[in-house]
Amino acid sequence: MQFCNPKQYALFPLFAVLITTTILSSPLSQDQYAYSQPSNANSTANATGSEVDLIDTHPSPANVKTGSKFEILSTVVNNSPDTIKLPAGPCDSPLTAFFMRNVIIRHTQIHCTATPFELNPGEEVTLAGPVSGTIYQAIKAGETPATATVYYLTGNGLPVNVTKPFVFTID
Length: 171
Prior knowledge:
mainly beta; Immunoglobulin-like; 6-stranded antiparallel β-sheet; 12 strands; 46% strand; globular
């Protein structure tokens, strides 16, 4: 019969606590790098088979410079047979982005509510993101792969999202 060294038994709980603490404390950070899917990912939606699409996704201003703050613009196209609802208002956006590199995301404490905006079948609307209280800031020059995600409600009130990759350059 083989016995393990008692020091080995002490390391396992220590590693478990360290990993759990690291995972749970990450979202609490004010400044964090955001990572996402590879830039060759396909547009996805949840299992409802939505026909909502994101097109013409790009940063604003168009010429992002290192150190500058920017937002993302994207056009949501409702090709589904149903009306969809998007959060809207001065402090809420259904559009968010995640960056593979070169961008830091800062969060501040702003709480507000939004009134849903309806997008009928065949209609499109250009949205700006991120939500109020979130700042995208360029920290390094170079090609920046990212994904944009729009969150919305279907006609029967189910939450859905569509994600689409895009790439832009930081000067």
